[in-house]
Amino acid sequence: MGKITKLCWEGLTLKHVTHPKIVVPYLLYVFTAFLCELFLMVLFGVSCFLFHQYGHRPDLVFIVSGAILILFFVITVLIIRTTISRHRNVFLKGFHESSLKVLDD
């Protein structure tokens, strides 16, 4: 089971991929997932506030979905952090080349 988990994590963080045309869109996709999860967490917080305000008690499905949302959020943050740290040279190289193109024009 540990080998499957390791392979899955390597795939999610693009360990063996270095091409910027793959890394950058993937990070944009994961960042979009991060924003969606952040929005859902805000909605979950507002829902918790409204439940408390009006004296209703949320059911088990609501609580479990909140726990799953927090788990997904943590995994997404870890994926973004690990992928950026692994592919830092892709961003620096791309930034350096784009700044040179602007200076040449």
Could you give the distance between the termini?
A: 54 Å
Structural class, judged by helices and strands? mainly alpha
How many domains would you count in the coordinates?
1
The number of strands is 0
Strand content: under 5%
Residue runs with pLDDT of under 50 for 5 or more positions: none
Instruction: Return the average pLDDT rounded to an integer.
Output: 86
Profile the largest sheet: none
Question: Secondary-structure element sequence?
Answer: HHHH
Shape: elongated
Q: Helix proportion of residues, in percent?
A: over 70%
By DSSP (H or I, 4+ residues per run), the number of helices equals 4
Gyration radius over CA: 19 Å
What does this structure look like?
With 105 residues, this protein is mainly α. It is 85% helix and 0% strand. It has one domain. α2 (20-53) packs antiparallel against α3 (60-86).
Write the layout of secondary structure elements.
Blueprint: H1 2-12, H2 20-53, H3 60-86, H4 88-104
Question: What's this model, at a glance?
Answer:
Helix content is 85%, strand content 0%. It has helices at 2-12, 20-53, 60-86, 88-104.
Observed structural traits:
about 85% helix, about 100 residues, about 0% strand, mainly alpha, 4 helices
